[in-house]
Specification:
- The structure holds 2 protein chains of 2 kinds.
- In chain A, 31% of the residues lie in helices and 22% in strands.
- Chain A is built from 10 helices and 12 strands.
- Chain A has helices at 2-36, 45-52, 56-67, 76-86, 105-109, 155-159, 164-167, 175-182, 227-232, 236-239; strands at 126-127, 132-139, 144-148, 151-154, 187-195, 203-205, 211-218, 242-249, 252-259, 266-269, 289-293, 305-310.
- Chain A starts with a helix and ends with a strand.
- Chain B is mainly β.
- At the A-B interface, strand 1, strand 2, helix 6, strand 5 and strand 9 of A face strand 1, strand 3 and strand 4 of B.
- Strand 9 (252-259) of chain A pairs antiparallel with strand 1 of chain B, so a sheet runs across the interface.
Amino acid sequence: GNALLRWTGFLLKWAPVGICVFGAIEWQLNKQNCIKNRTLHTATQFQSKIYSLLPLRLISRCWGWLASCYVPESVRPFIFGLYANTFKVNLGEALYPDLKHYKTLAEFFTRPLRDGVRTIDADAPLISPADGKILHLGKACRSLIEQVKGVNYNIADFLGPTTWLRESKQNSNNDMNALKYATNDSTILYHCVIYLAPGDYHRFHSPANFDPLFRRHFTGDLFSVSPRIATWLPGLFCLNERVLYVGEWEHGFFSFTAVGATNVGSVQIFMDAELKTNQWVGFKNPRSFYDLTIDHGNFFKKGDLIGQFNMG
Amino acid sequence: STIVLLFEAPVGFEFKVKPGQKIKVGQCLGHI
């Protein structure tokens, strides 16, 4: 009886300590696993569905309306200065550094740069089309592009059916054959994703000398494309509204795609007046797309100004 | 907003930039 009492006393005294130590070890291990697997944490189908239910187009269009409202000259330095400080805008590079020059926030957002502040690398076959941050790059293997490490999306989902090959009277039996056609034995497909932060210069230029044959406008969703969402939402670039120009450069196939987002949902291409982005889609299929064949002669020279992203 | 480039290039093409790197218009992205 004494032994039983002693054993019970021991358990009552030390069991809470043991439980606390065990809990602390579990908590630490769980925390370490979370840190290790952070890059692989992606949205489930349910989470993606919930996210897609948010009225992002409505928010985007309201934001666009607000951004294009006239701002009285007296408050421009305050409002645009606040924006510039928050998003670290380099006003020294702007063509018009005086904040009073811009009538609206949208105009300030798409401010042009002074001549000579950007140098086009004459020797490089491929240059950056925009100011920003490299999100991801690499080879596209087996018709797949890596969005983030371990998460891929299909080229055919991103570009849509390769009808431009029929347009240019080339062989096109199906998508796979078309992609094989685009890639001969000594070449492969590469991809590069550039993210433009809110304070960056939001105009974009031609990344190479290329001949656009075809334009496709996908009226998709307007999810955020911030690096955090791009890491979280699989196939983000296949879901969002985007405008892609497909053509050829000296090494074969070349495509340039401007992907819209919630705050910056409109893509404007200066040579393409017919292009209308971030419109009400109503009850139409949000994944539908509109094509336009481009006349020969609209050649993009490396560094040429192509267009800009607009607010809303 | 984001720009995605997808292009065909010789097998020896090498990117001169890395993920996470900040870049400016006109800066070299890669060499063959």
